[in-house]
Specification:
By secondary structure, the protein is α+β, with helices and mostly antiparallel strands. The protein contains 8 helices and 9 strands. Strand 4 and strand 5 (95-97) form a beta hairpin. The longest helix has 18 residues, at 61-78.
Length: 254
């Protein structure tokens, strides 16, 4: 029998509250991003309506890219036009979207410590990429990996998991989707990545022309960052293709 609800549990009340605030912010400002109904907010849990759907696959990349572009453009028009990428964004007094760069600097240094970067020169290269990425209009990041989309039999797309939502440049969460699709299902041909970027830019530009300007070079920077940031998860969560496959794909399409 299909359950009617899904309950996600959190380690602390603060993490549950943050996820609930993120859910509400997305529902208000990123309306194209459809989410399951949030039915109960507990002290350390959130309960949602159950969605019977499959996770995203490579064949969904074009439609998901358009959805992300539309959602990012809508959020910029509604709220994030006032945000700065290097500053936390406070939509209201009891909620916060972390800044783009600071938490990722910490993560990249951790990757060096754990052996996912070969030396300090490689770390410096990644930090330089991160620094030059922190400009332009602000969108958001919500970890758009394939597991965080549910696609129903009739093609309706639901976005799930609001644990980690931050301010981010346009195109950054699209790069996370591409990276994790590659890690899950294998290489995506360069024309497929180009088509996804065009679809994303076209959807974002409908909200304001300046929002549809993510270049292939800039997307390549984001892909390189995600390759390092997601490297520890290879072999877990359905990521069957590890760092070597990822690096080869990025080098072949940058």
């Amino acid at each position: 029998m299909t359950p009617f609800h899904f309950t996600k549990h959190y380690e602390t009340p603060a993490k549950a509250a943050a996820a609930a605030h993120h859910y509400g912010w997305l529902a208000t400002h990123a309306k194209p991003l459809r989410q399951p109904a949030l039915t109960v907010v507990g002290p350390t849990s959130l309960t949602f309506e159950h969605i019977d759907g499959r996770h995203a696959q490579k064949k969904d990349l074009l439609s998901l890219a358009a959805l992300l572009g539309d959602a990012h453009g809508a959020a910029w028009a509604s709220d994030l036009h006032a945000a700065q990428l290097d500053m936390p964004h406070e939509p209201r007094k009891d909620s916060l979207l972390p800044a783009f760069r600071s938490c990722r600097e910490v993560a990249l240094r951790n990757r060096l410590e754990k052996g996912f970067l070969p030396d300090t020169a490689a770390l410096h290269a990644m930090l330089t990429l991160l620094e030059r990425s922190a400009d332009g209009p602000a969108a958001f990041y919500k970890d758009s990996n394939p597991r965080n989309f549910l696609i129903t039999e009739d093609g309706t797309i639901f976005s799930v998991d609001t644990d980690d939502v931050t301010v981010a440049p346009f195109g950054y969460d699209l790069a996370k989707l591409i990276t994790t699709l590659i890690m899950t299902h294998g290489p995506i041909d360069p024309p497929g990545i180009e088509a996804a970027l065009n679809s994303y830019n076209h959807a974002a530009a409908r909200h304001d022309a300046q929002l549809g300007a993510t270049s292939r070079e800039r997307l390549g920077d984001f892909l390189a960052l995600h390759a390092v940031l997601t490297a520890p998860y290879a072999g877990r969560h359905g990521y069957h293709y590890g760092w070597l496959h990822q690096r080869q794909q990025i080098q072949g399409t940058s």
